Amino acid sequence: MRIIDRALKKLMTVKLYWLIGLSVVLSEILTGIIVSIMSVLFHGRVTHDLIITGIVTAFIVSLIIVSSIAYFIKQLQLSDEALRKSEELLSEAQRIAHIGSWTYDLAGHLTWSDETYRIYGVSPGVFTLNAEAFINLIHPDDRPAMQAWITACVAGEKPGEHEFRAILPDGAVRWIRGRGELKYEAENRPVYLTGTAQDITERKKFEKDLFQSKQDWEDIFNSITDMVTVHDTGYNIIHANKAAEKILGLPLITELKDNKCFKFYHGTNHPPEGCPSCDCLKTGLAATFEVFEHHLDKFIEIRAIPRFDSENRMIGLIHIVRDITERRKSEEQMQRLEDQLRQSQKMEAIGQLAGGIAHDFNNILTAIIGYSSLLKMKMNDNDPLINNIDQILASSERAANLTQSLLAFSRKQVTNPQPADLSGIINKVENLLKRIIGEDVELKIILADAPLTTMADSGQIQQVLMNLSTNARDAMPKGGALTISTEAIDADEGFIKSHGFGEPGSYALIEISDTGAGMDEKTRDRIFEPFFTTKEAGKGTGLGLTMVYGIVKQHNGYINVYSEQGHGTTFKIYLPLISAAAHKESKKEEAAVFFGSGETILLAEDDDDVRIFTKALLEEAGYEVIVASNGQDAVRLFRENEHKIDLLLFDVIMPLLSGKDAYTRIKRIRSDIKVLFTSGYPADFIRAHEITGDKLNYIAKPALPGELLKIVREILKTD
Q1: Which of 354, 425, 432, 466 could make an SS bond with 410 (beta carbons 3.0 to 4.6 A apart)?
Q2: Which long-range contacts (CB under 8 A, 24 or more apart) does 548-551 make?
Q3: Could you give the residue ranges of the DSSP H alpha helices within 410-506?
């Protein structure tokens, strides 16, 4: 066919008139020959008529031949034009689509279309086209696969498409997709290979970018710590990130048969009430809610966001689920801290009030107790009025205990441990406890036969008893019994091992038991925590047992609790015992009167009553007293009497100049001066003025005259 095409093309290049002339000449010659033969056959000679007839006939035949040839040539020209246009369109289509064509006969001849040359970056007139040159254009890594593909095509295996890389002469790398198939003759004998080559470089780049974009999206999707699941309108999970798979326990989505979202999120067989997915699917609007999901044991925040197709039809939704358990815990903890802050602020306000009351009240009690004690010291033992003085002193002592209770309540009292018999402390507080627990609770007190002497602050031990009794009363709203008992025990290694606390030695045990509701284990584990309370808001501070625990620990003791729900509660307090001899010696010293030997004391006190009483007491005990009403006055008087003064007795808080500041200035004048501070303010005021922290001598108001004289005598006796 290709040979015929070439012949036709050459034929169509001849001028039309040359073809017509040639046809006429041939027709004339042929007609002349035919006429001559016929004339000879019929007449024996060539006749004139026949020649004319032959010429006319030849002319007509020539016209017919010429017309036929002209028509044939015209059709050839039209066909050639159509073929040319078709080839141009095909070439243009190949150029636009980057698809070239090729043939390869079994003799090894290779032909390419123009676009194939462009795809491989070579020119038909420059590039020597053969199989070896073609293979050299292939990327070295892809050549073995290309040769195998060609072999398979030649073998008629129809391997289909093949993608490979070509390295163009300018060094550019192009991705090519080739297709080929084997053509056969009528006898089913293979003749040649034909196929296409398409430049797919841009598509490959797009596929690479698309893959990277998808991979980036998957990486981001799976790096989100929130659970993200994609649902269809039937509540089926069709896609989930790694966090959702892990937290919800999702298998691979492709393996899911029953993939309803409510099964994994809520552990139910149907959408629960209030589910945001339901609202989202109904309204087409995003929905959010927070819930504690028992199925997951987590607080979660669920956001349901609708999904729409190109025609704005809802096709499902996206769930974004955040684990807010820690946030909720933090919020709850913050709320507890805020509640505790408010409670502490209330306690601080009450403490400030209590401290102010205690200061003024202590100054008043100092004068009452002091003058009463002086009066009693001047009376005979058989004076009928001495009983009245004793009643005044007893009432004053109760008032002092009340002040200590106020300070204990505000936790601002200064610890003042002294040898004390626990039985005596309990007896003193018995009537107060009865008033605390009420008439419907029976108070039973069972004390040890022998004295239980321990180093204790009586006021603080009383506070412990009051706090525990208050708790017992609250545990028995319908009445019951409260029992307080004491005994001595020896803590040996066996006791310590079985109880899990303590040091070997002798202890006084105070046991406080009630018949109330009792506590569960969870509550028992937390009862000593600050601000922990089982009472309703506004009905408990959560500080009572914390104070008890702190006081016991300050006394080097231990406290334990035994309780079961419905079987009451028992607190056991262990305080170290000291020898009875030490207690008796202490009592003997307390009863003694400590007189001076004419030493001079500089007294600085801003309260007139206390200043007058203290001056009288010290002078009665044999001391010379110089008085000042404030710190500045005290410094001035010390300068005037520097070599005469033996001791400074300063109130801590005074106008113009505090007792500590006055002492500091005086010490610059005479570094060996001795000092005793006193105050009716609570402990935080004292610590703020660096009195107790500097281990300076200190006595709290109100102090019994004997106690004051004793400590004055002891300070003066020290070197």
Answers
A1: 354
A2: 548/464, 548/467, 548/468, 550/411, 551/457, 551/460, 551/461, 551/463, 551/464
A3: 422-437, 458-475, 493-499
- What DSSP character marks residue 255? G
- Between CA 227 and CA 222 the distance in angstroms is 9
SS (H, E, C) 637-704: HHHHCCCCCCEEEEECCCCCCCHHHHHHHHHHHCCCCEEEEEECCCHHHHHHCCCCCCCCCEEECCCC
Q: Of all residues in the chain, what percent are helix, strand and coil, respectively (each to 5)?
A: 50, 20, 30
d(CA 528, CA 512): 16
DSSP assigned state of 449: S
Decide the pairing of beta strands 237-240 and 227-232: antiparallel
pLDDT digits (tens, 9 = 90+) for 131-190: 888 888 899 999 998 888 888 877 777 666 888 999 998 889 999 888 888 888 877 777
Q: Radius of gyration (Cα) for the chain, nearest Å?
A: 59
Average pLDDT, the chain: 76
Pair of tokens at residue 616: 């009288």
Residue with tokens 């070599």: 643
Confidence check: pLDDT of 626 > 90: yes
Let me know the angle formed at the C-alpha of 718 by 715 and 719, rounded to the nearest 5 degrees: 135
According to the model, what pLDDT value does residue 595 have? 78
Give CA–CA dist 425/508, Å, rounded.
13
The mean per-residue pLDDT over the stretch 22-29 comes to: 61
Report how far residue 384's alpha carbon sits from residue 584's, in angstroms, rounded to the nearest whole number. 29
- For residue 315, give the H/E element and its range: strand 314-323
Q: In terms of DSSP H, where are the helices of 185-233?
A: 201-223
Residue 545 has pLDDT above 70, yes or no: yes
Task: Report how far residue 244's alpha carbon sits from residue 250's, in angstroms, rounded to the nearest whole number.
Answer: 7
Question: What tokens were used for 77?
Answer: 């020209």
Three-state SS letters, 549-572:
HHHHHHCCCEEEEEECCCCCEEEE
Instruction: Give the span between the Cα atoms of 619 and 625, in whole angstroms.
Output: 7
For the chain, the farthest-separated pair of C-alpha atoms sits apart, in whole angstroms, at 210
- CA torsion 129-135-137-141 (nearest 10°) is 180
Structure tokens at 467: 């706090």
Residues 103-124 have pLDDT tens digits of: 888 777 888 888 888 888 888 8
**Low-confidence winner among 87-91, 125-129, 480-484, 624-628 (lowest mean pLDDT):** 87-91
- Cβ 231 vs Cβ 265: under 8 Å: no
Instruction: Catalogue the E-assigned strands of 86-169.
Output: 99-105, 110-112, 162-167
- Tell me how crowded residue 368 is: count the other CB atoms within 10 A of its CB: 19
The amino acid occupying position 89 is L
**Inter-axis angle of helices 325-377 and 705-717, to 10 degrees?**
90
From 404, 357, 375, select the one nearest 613 (Cα to Cα).
Answer: 375
Q: Is the pTM of this model over 0.70?
A: no
